[in-house]
UniProtKB/TrEMBL annotation:
Function, as annotated: Required for flagellar hook formation. May act as a scaffolding protein.
Transcription among keywords: no
Family statement drawn from the similarity comment of this UniProt entry: Belongs to the FlgD family.
Organism: Rosenbergiella gaditana
Domain FlgD Tudor-like residue range list: 85-219
Phosphoprotein listed as a keyword: no
Protein name per the record: Basal-body rod modification protein FlgD
Keywords carried by this UniProt record: Bacterial flagellum biogenesis, Cell projection, Cilium, Flagellum
Recorded superkingdom: Bacteria
Gene (name only): flgD
All copies of domain FlgD/Vpr Ig-like, residue ranges: 109-179
Pfam families reported in the protein's UniProt record: FlgD, FlgD_ig, FLgD_tudor
Amino acid sequence: MLSAITRADTLGASASISSTTSANSSADLQNQFLTLLIAQLKNQDPTNPMDNSQLTTQLTQINTLAGIENLNTTLASISGQINTNQSVQNTLLIGHGVMVPGDSVLVGEKATTPFGFEAESAAKTVTATIKDSSGNIVDQLDLGAMNAGTHTFQWDGTLKDNTPAPAGKYTVTIEATNDTGAVHTTPLTYALVYGINPTANGVVLNLGTYGTATLDQIKQIL
């Protein structure tokens, strides 16, 4: 059993360690462990020496912590590189058209913007109904059978009477069915990417008059 003086010396070493700044890394723990170990070796009872298994266990724990710290440092470096590469890749979207959730079609003097939809399952019949700003049906398109997934189409901008549709904004409604009933679809609209805005919650695309969208909202890049 340790004498009173020996215990005081050992406890003093422990108190000295705990009174210093809290350990923030495995190196700090190693230094503190060695300080305490030396104090114990100096003052241990020769008839009752330190248990080697405890020493081995403590060294193993410190080495494990050091390995975890090194792994975390490596992962943080890799994560930073991935974020940098993603930012560079995202800038390549600027100037490209994308299909995002929406039901708008713009008609200009010479062209119309694409429209589309995303289907949860395959459909035997798909119909696109195009309406003007007053809600009047100006055209209907029979798109036929479609597989599940994203589909994009181009309206020729011609009304039911085969006259050109006036320039402006139109809306598209998608109706899809199969043998079991209606198929859920999400309408998609075309937008041009004008810029990339990094935020704390991820990258946000500047779509001009269409507002903004996140990367996960992009269903197709045209």
